[in-house]
Every structure is written in C-alpha cells, then in structure tokens.
Write a structure and sequence with these properties.
The complex is a heterodimer of chains A (about 450) and B (about 210). Chain A is of the alpha/beta class and about 450 residues long. Chain A has a single domain, classed as Alpha-Beta Barrel (TIM Barrel). Chain A has twelve helices and 15 strands. A seven-stranded parallel sheet of chain A has the order 3-10-11-12-13-14-15. A four-stranded mixed sheet of chain A has the order 2-1-5-4. In chain A, helix 7 links the parallel strand 11 and strand 12. With about 210 residues, chain B is an alpha/beta fold. A five-stranded parallel sheet of chain B has the order 2-1-3-4-5, with helices on both faces. Classes of the chains: A alpha/beta (about 450), B alpha/beta (about 210).
Chain lengths: ~450, ~210
C-alpha cells in the first residue's frame, strides 16, 4: 500500500494496512532544528557537522528531508510557500548556529542582532533599521514576537491596519506551490499537505505582526484578547476582510495544485489553554465560525481536500462547533489538557473527525520519559484513536529541542509496530489513558 | 443595590469607566479607601474566578474584569495610609522564569492577586534567580510566584528554589509555580510549596500559603 493510499483510507475513516505516520508535513507537526540534527546524526544520514535548514525561523523548525521521511517510514510531505513569519523569504541560505551549537542554514533575511544580555533580536523583512520584531532569549530555542503596540484612540482604529499582513499571493508564489506539489506528487508516494496556516484568523503568534516593519492596529496580545469581547464588531470586520483575501488565495492555489494535495492545513489559531478554551463557545460561534464554515464549504464544494484545524489545549467544549464548521481533521489533540481524554474524544467524535496527532504527550512523556514509557504511551494512544481509521499518528505538537533522540525513535518504532491493522493489543485497555488529566 | 454592590457588578461586567466613576463618587460620599477591597473589589474578583473555573468566563472576560478592578484600585492605592496600607494580604514577587518570554498567564495571575489584596512586585519575563532573590530581600516578600510555558524553561524554576535556599531566604517565603507544562508533581519535585492550575486556584493557594 502506498503512503498516499494509507492516508486516504485513514481520512475516510477506514482501516489501511497500518496507522499513517506524519513528521514535518505541517508547521505544527514538525521538529526543532536541534532535534532534527541529532536525529539525522543518530540515523547516520549526514556526516557530522552537516547543517540542517531552518524552514520556520519563528519556531525554529528544521527541514525534514525525504531521506529522513523514508528512514522513519513517514507517509506525508509538506507543501508550503516561500514566506516566513518575519516577512523574509526562504531563500539565499547562509550558515548559522543555534545556542545549542547546531549547525544550521538560515535564509538571507535572517539577520540577528545580539543584545547586551546575550538575547538575539530578529528584524522584520531582514531590515535591521526597522524595530526588532522577534526575540530569542540567551540560550533559548526559538523566537517570540516582540509586541510593538503604538497607543491608539478607539475612534482611530481601522480594519485595514490589522489586515496588512494578508495579501493575495503573487503569481511567483502560486507557481512555487504548483511546482512543489507536482514534484512531490510525481517523485514520491507521500500524501501531500498544503500549509496555509498563515491564513489563520486571529492567530495570537501572528497578532504582533512580526513580519511588518511598523505594525498598526491592535497588536498587543492582551489587547487582542480583550478585543474579542470588547470590540466584537471591529474584529468581525477584520476577519471578514481577511477571509475575502484568503478565499482569493484558495482559488488561485487550487487552480495550481489541484487535487494532488490530500489535506489543507487551514488554521493554526489556538483556541484552547491547558484547562479550557481561551474563548467562550459563543465567541467562537459569533466571530470565527462563519468564516471557518465559508472556507470549509468552498474547499468541500470544489476540491477533494480534507481540511485540517490546529488548536492546542482543551477544545472539547468547541469540538461540536469545529465539526459543524466543516473541519475534517483535528490537530494536535493535546490529551494532557483538561477534558481531552483520548477514549472520550474517539468515542464521541471518532466517526466525524480525524485525529491527527495526540500520539504522545509532548509536555511530559516525550521530553522527560524513558523510551519504555514512550512506547507504552504510544500503544495506549493507538488503542484509543486507531480503531476504524480516522487517525494519523504524530506527537501532540512539534517535537521540541532537548528531546532525547532515543525517545523520538522509540515513538516512531512503537507507532509502526502497534499501529499495524488489524490492531492486536496484547494488553487489556487500562481504565485511564496514560498521560491524561481530568 | 448598595454602592458596593454596584461597584462589584461593574467590575464583573468589565466596565472600567463605570468602576472608576463609582469609586470616585463613593470616595466623595465619604467611603473610606480601605473599605473598597473587602466590600467590593475582592468579592467581585472572587466571583470572576468562580465564573472562570466554571467555564462561564474565559480569557477576554477575565482580562476586562481585571482592568475594571484596576481602574478602581489605581485610585485607591495612593489613598491607603497607615493601618489600611499595612493590611495587605501579603507581598508577592512574581515573574516568568529565565529563558521564557510568555507572560499572559503570569499577568492574569498578578492582576487577580492584586485584586485579592496582595501587593505585587512584578519582575516581568525572562528573570534569573539572582534578580528574584534580590527582590524578595528588598521587598520583604512572603510569596514568590513563578510561571513557565515551556518544557525547556520550567527546569529553571528549580534554580530559583535553590537560589532562595542558598541566600538563606527559603524559610521566609513560600514558593508557588504555574504554567501550561507545570504540574503538582513537578512543584513537589523541585521543592516548591504549591502549584496553581489556573488563576483562581493561584489566588486560593496564595491565600493559604500566606496564612500558613
């Protein structure tokens, strides 16, 4: 069975020959560059010192190349654009080292500036004369956006100011998507995942406008959350305008890549915190749902793509709405958050949504557990999510820096071993799933 | 509705302009500054905490309410003198630990602790152990509240506990920790005194620890 076939069956809620595996097909199912490097060395894929490309300079995700995909028997592949959160393109590669000493390649626009305390600053569009928009603390592993919020008067708020980072893709960008999809479709048997996370409405990581030289509008994180309740109409208008642009982009991209793509990652906005949703179900329904539904409806009417929503945290209270909005796939399935028990999720929503992720807890077991604990948790999660298909295996979010390579290898080996259909679980299900909390 | 009840309602509803105006009017009518906290601000924010815990309030609603509470307390703090000023529930040094820049959770906890009558010394984000030790000493704090969002930075909470011990201050302060990857077991393992799973629990914990 080809990888593409395996993923297709799983997404149709049927059992393929084994649970499909993902690594790096999205910017939320990837791996930190430090870990990619150590993994490649452990698997003997590179000579020592061979640098790894950083494809997402915000989260510092390393490139997962075809040789690594094959070494781990991964079934998916990434189709992404040329842009980055900091507004410079993924081109003109140059050498750089992370704080951990990992040799890396970064785009030409990745121009850091050290602070006296050892922090690193990054500038929008690579322009050091513009106020810095990203900061990596000394010894840190990725950048956070620097909030640059000018004081504003209520009556001066303009919808356009919060739409500046949304634009209709250039012909060159569309051609890049087309070429990348065609290459991967004809040269590999992987299922292709189209990454359109940059189109997310209200993604808090992007609200500060890290790619803009002088962001205007509501750019402070706290002020944004306040606005979801206090300036509802204004936010609605922002989303309306952003969605108009997104719809134009979807049409153009579909015309270029067609149904070579299996999955479209449409939104990465986090709606869940550790103990419950960030926003009320009412806020989701009033502000986000109409636009999510509009986009999903278009995709389902015109394409064979399955749509993918990423939201960390506890989203049990919002799942009914996600399903009603038309999403086919939920990620990252953070079972360590409240009310995210894998058996409950599968029991109530298993027939209606595919779980993509949730394979292991990235807050505890993967970074801090033993390889044996990793294997046990993977088995337990497969027991919960895999029956009947509707499950694509991935850790519950990007594999972070400082994660032991042995644990990553144990995770993927266990996933292949226990994920073979028909499922043969040699142990009675335990009463409580490993690593869950209520 | 009594004026105190009106003020409570304005805070719960997140109406900062109303809470500010009410506070000013009540002061003019002769209400003593020290009465506002026990009779309006603390009960209002307790109700906000209850609603948050019961999933009636979410981050936006809590932030708006906390701003309304602050609109009132900002007027009151400079007016609190003598015994009233001293009657604070305790002094909390709070921050996000070294290497971590995420502060929205810490800010919400700080706002809620402040509304619960604690004096807050907020050191901000990416704060090393030495700075925390100095602040505890300088402000004679009896509580330290540490936040971390990342698995890669939560380990730095442990160095803070160790630094406070090394500085001979460990017996003077209680240490509470919180943040997405943090758990009760983690708090115990590093020798902290407690774990707050969300902002309302952090307030409850701070009250317990301050009186323990």
């Amino acid at each position: 069975m080809t990888s593409r076939e395996r993923v297709r069956l799983a997404l149709e809620h049927r059992e393929p020959d084994c649970v499909p595996l993902d690594l790096g097909a999205t910017t939320v199912t990837g791996m930190h560059v430090d870990t990619v490097y150590r993994l490649r060395q452990a698997l003997d894929l590179d000579a020592p010192g061979t640098p790894v490309k950083i494809l997402d300079p915000f989260q510092m995700l390393g490139e997962v190349k075809p040789d690594l995909l094959n070494a781990l028997a991964i079934d998916t592949a990434l189709v992404c654009g040329t842009g980055t959160a900091f507004g410079f393109p993924l081109e003109g590669w140059k050498e750089w080292r992370t704080f951990a000493g990992t040799p890396a390649l970064v785009p030409a626009g990745f121009n850091t500036q050290p602070e006296p305390n050892g922090d690193l600053l990054l500038h929008p569009q690579g322009d050091r004369s513009a106020p810095a928009s990203g900061r990596m603390p000394q010894g840190g592993v990725y950048f956070d956006a620097i909030v640059r919020q000018d004081p504003f008067k209520e009556e001066e708020l303009r919808v356009e100011d919060n739409v500046e980072e949304f634009s209709v893709f250039s012909d060159g960008e569309i051609e890049h998507y087309r070429r990348r999809a065609e290459e991967l479709y004809t040269q590999t048997d992987k299922a292709l995942v189209l990454n359109l996370g940059a189109l997310s409405l209200g993604n808090i990581a992007r609200i500060p406008g890290p790619g803009l030289k002088r962001p205007r509008g509501i750019r402070d994180v706290e002020e944004w959350y306040v606005s979801l309740s206090a300036r509802r109409e204004h936010i609605y208008k922002i989303f309306e305008r952003q969605t108009e642009i997104n719809m134009a982009n979807l049409e153009k991209i579909y015309a270029a890549v067609g149904n070579r793509v299996a999955v479209a990652y449409l939104t990465g906005t986090d709606f869940g915190a550790q103990n419950g949703p960030f926003v009320s179900p009412t806020t989701y329904r009033n502000l986000f749902f109409p636009f999510h539904k509009q986009v999903n409806d278009w995709v389902h009417r015109h394409t064979t793509w399955k749509t993918f929503i990423h939201s960390c945290g506890s989203v049990w209270a919002l799942l009914e709405d996600f399903v009603a909005a038309g999403f086919d796939i939920l990620n990252p399935v953070q079972c360590s958050a409240a009310r995210m028990n894998p058996f409950d999720l599968k029991g109530k929503y298993g027939g209606r949504i595919t779980f993509w992720g949730g394979g292991i807890d990235t807050q505890s077991t993967l970074p801090f557990g033993s390889p044996q604990e990793v294997r046990e948790e993977v088995r337990e999660r497969i027991r919960a999510f895999a029956p009947g298909g509707g499950f694509v295996f991935n850790a519950a979010h990007n594999v972070q820096a400082l994660v032991p390579v042995e644990n990553v290898l144990a995770m993927y080996r266990a996933a292949r071993e226990y994920g073979a259909y028909p499922l043969r679980m040699d142990r009675a299900p335990s009463l409580t799933a490993v690593g869950t909390k209520h | 509705m009594t004026p105190f009840e009106e003020l409570q309602q304005a805070i719960i509803d997140g109406k900062a302009f109303v809470s500010k105006a009410l506070t000013e009017r009540m002061l003019k009518d002769g209400v003593r500054p020290g009465e506002f906290f026990p009779k309006a601000i603390i009960p209002a924010m307790d109700e906000v905490g209850r609603r948050m815990r019961e999933c009636e309030f979410f981050i936006p609603e809590v932030l708006i309410a906390a701003r309304a509470a602050r609109a009132s307390s900002d007027i009151l703090r400079p007016l609190l003198v003598g015994a009233e000023a001293m009657s604070s529930a305790g002094t909390v040094v709070c921050c996000t630990v070294k290497g971590d820049l995420h502060d929205i959770g810490k800010n919400i906890v700080a706002m809620m602790l402040e509304s619960a009558g604690f004096k807050i010394v907020d050191l901000g984000v990416d704060v090393n152990a030495e700075k925390i030790v100095n602040a505890v000493r300088e402000h004679q704090a009896n509580l330290v509240a540490l936040s971390a969002l990342l698995t890669t930075t939560m380990v730095n909470m442990k160095s803070v506990v160790e630094a406070l011990t090394a500085a001979g201050l460990r017996d003077n302060v209680k240490i509470m920790v919180g943040g997405a990857p943090v758990t009760d077991a983690w708090a115990h393992s590093i020798g902290a005194d407690g774990y707050g799973k969300d902002a309302p629990s952090a307030v409850e914990l701070a009250r317990q620890l301050a009186t323990a």
